[in-house]
Amino acid sequence: MDVLLHLFVGLHIIGIAALLGGFLTQMKAMGQGTARFVPGMLHGALTMLVTGVALVGLNEAQGAHVDNIKIGIKLAVLIVILALVYVKRDEEKVDKGMFGLVGLLTMVNIFIAVLWT
Ligand code: HEM
Predict the structure, then answer these.
(1) Cβ contact 55:5 at 8 Å
(2) pLDDT above 90 for 1
(3) CA of 112 to the centre of ligand 1 (A)
(4) Residues with CB under 6 A from ligand 1
(5) Using CA atoms, how far apart are residues 112 and 117, in angstroms rounded to an integer?
(6) Residue 107 pLDDT > 90
(7) I need a surface site. Which of 28, 36, 40, 84 has the fewest CB within 10 A?
């Protein structure tokens, strides 16, 4: 079970890499107002959702305590990210503010994950 849990933490991190990495590749374009939500960002956000829910289940299954408030906030933030990226996925140019918000919310979730102990 422990191996499975660690495997999903690894997949969770691959999801962050896709979402945040996609954002970082578009930062120069964001400054020019021509950034777009690349497909990897949508796939990364979906990976975060699936692996996050699996991690909650795996933790519960082995009797470990999961902080419901922390997870609830992370889930709410991710739903906003997913909604924005999904709705605007086909747009060639995304408004600077909206694009920046997705990067900011991703980083907020990273720091909630690592600082909220
Ligand atoms: C953009 C969205 C997200 C980011 C950037 C993110 C980031 C992270 C990071 C960096 C970790 C490893 C550090 C730690 O163990 O605390 C982690 C772990 C975890 N995440 Fe997320 N997460 C996101 C979304 C979610 C969602 C939506 C859920 C649940 C529905 C979730 C559930 C978990 C759980 C349960 C762990 C703990 C794994 C363990 O140590 O057993 N995450 N997350």
Answers:
(1) yes
(2) no
(3) 9
(4) 5, 9, 12, 16, 48-49, 52-53, 55-56, 59, 66, 71, 74-75, 78, 81, 106, 109-110, 113-114
(5) 9
(6) yes
(7) 28
